[in-house]
């Protein structure tokens, strides 16, 4: 296991290992047969021929050039005998691409005796253009708020295609508490492996990713079979056919843990500068995507809370209106009842005052009639204090109607 430091800013120097150095090839060709008289070592390396063999026909040294039209172009420039007819043509030699220029060679009398062939390798330029295009596409996905799994999956596949050697990419996302890592994307790893590591803890010695998340720094494991960090996951990695893994923490702008970005290899391997460069570039891209996702989640949660608060406020206003309407209805009903009671009391005021209690029922009551009671229907009667109290308790809407005794005061002071 080898930890390495990380700088989140990807400079031009960081990206240089991704593209390497462009090479220039040169060959001097003689006659219409295009015999190679002199050439630099880079030329022989590009066409896969043994250097230092002058006099051989270019078409014999590199037959694939004829299929790409280069020999035909050489013939045209040789016959034209005009240096202005030189032109550019892209040619692929092995796994490298070149832009070639053809210039006529002349003798002292001005006759064309051969050609100069100059080629500049463009493989690195094409690689850089492809990386920029892929990276721009990812940024466009992030800008249009594409789902995070879609962005991370596309990023993983992009890295796997751009890496100089076979690599399997995995992105794990940190839980809000930063104590566990969840599956984010790993399109080329087997499902059983992704399911097994989904939810692993962050901590020192917990594989490459758990350790990188805990330490907040890249962790390089060049041989999973022997590294102590993989003791608990060695059998799992063996079943998945994994031999090496280096993991880079994905950090937010404030230094908080967002997740990890891991590059797996089938066999034990030491990372190259190009691997570190890819990790730096895409760890930052992943951080941008994850932070944007968190911002959108927080925005959606805030909007949901605002909608809930609005709905609750609307419900409270509705309930308050209903209570106010109900209170107004009760007040109106109470006012109407009071009016009815006053009218009933006035109607009964002229009724003669009996001598004995009228509230005793069939058994009669011999007590003096002291208090007058009435109800809202206009019925009234005189009774003793005991029966008046019983009537008030048991008969709805009964009230004391004796103005002489002060209404309720007569009951209180009985």
Automatic annotation (TrEMBL):
Recorded protein name is: GAF domain-containing protein
Is Chaperone included in the keywords of this UniProt record?
A: no
InterPro entries documented for this protein = GAF (IPR003018), GAF-like_dom_sf (IPR029016), PAS-like_dom_sf (IPR035965)
Which stretches are annotated as coiled coil? 299-336
The GAF domain extends over 134-300
Q: Name one Pfam family in it.
A: GAF_2
Keywords linked to the UniProt accession: Coiled coil
Q: Which domain of life is it from?
A: Bacteria
Checking Gene3D superfamilies in the record gives: 3.30.450.40, PAS domain (3.30.450.20)
Asked whether the keyword Oxidoreductase is assigned, the reply is no
Organism (species):
Actinoplanes digitatis
């Amino acid at each position: 296991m080898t930890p390495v430091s990380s700088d989140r800013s990807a400079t031009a120097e960081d990206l240089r290992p991704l593209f390497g150095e462009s090479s220039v090839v040169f060959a001097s060709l003689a006659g219409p047969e295009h015999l190679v008289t002199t050439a630099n070592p880079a030329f022989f390396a590009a066409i896969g021929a043994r250097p230092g063999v002058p006099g051989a026909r270019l078409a014999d040294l590199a037959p694939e050039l004829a299929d790409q039209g280069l020999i035909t172009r050489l013939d045209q420039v040789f016959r034209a005998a005009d240096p202005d007819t030189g032109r550019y043509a892209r040619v692929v030699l092995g796994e490298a691409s070149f832009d070639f220029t053809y210039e006529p060679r002349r003798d002292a009398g001005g006759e064309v005796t051969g050609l100069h062939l100059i080629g500049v390798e463009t493989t690195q330029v094409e690689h850089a253009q492809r990386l920029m295009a892929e990276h721009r596409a990812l940024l466009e996905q992030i800008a249009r708020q594409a789902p995070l799994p879609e962005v991370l999956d596309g990023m993983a596949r992009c890295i796997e295609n751009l890496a100089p050697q076979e690599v399997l990419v995995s992105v794990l996302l940190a839980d809000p508490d930063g104590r566990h890592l969840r599956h984010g994307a790993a399109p080329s790893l087997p499902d059983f492996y992704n399911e097994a590591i989904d939810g692993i803890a962050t901590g020192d010695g917990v594989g490459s990713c758990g350790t990188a998340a805990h330490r907040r720094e890249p962790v390089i494991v060049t041989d999973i079979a022997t590294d102590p960090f993989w003791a608990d996951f060695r059998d799992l990695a063996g079943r998945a056919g994994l031999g090496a893994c280096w993991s880079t923490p994905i950090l937010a702008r404030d230094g908080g843990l967002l997740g990890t970005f891991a590059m797996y290899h089938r066999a034990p391997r030491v990372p190259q500068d190009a691997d570190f460069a890819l990790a730096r570039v895409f760890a930052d891209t992943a951080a941008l995507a994850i932070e944007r996702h968190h911002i959108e989640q927080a925005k959606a949660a805030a909007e949901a809370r605002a909608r809930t608060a609005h709905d609750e406020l609307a419900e409270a206003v509705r309930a308050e209106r209903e209570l106010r309407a109900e209170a107004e209805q009760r007040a109106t009903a109470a006012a109407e009842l009071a009016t009815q009671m006053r009218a009933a009391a006035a109607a009964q005021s002229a009724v003669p005052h009996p001598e004995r209690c009228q509230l005793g029922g069939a058994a009669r009551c011999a007590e003096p009639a002291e208090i007058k009671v009435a109800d809202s229907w206009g019925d009234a009667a005189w009774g003793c204090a005991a029966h008046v109290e019983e009537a008030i308790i048991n008969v709805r809407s009964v009230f004391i109607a004796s103005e002489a005794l002060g209404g309720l005061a007569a009951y209180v002071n009985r």
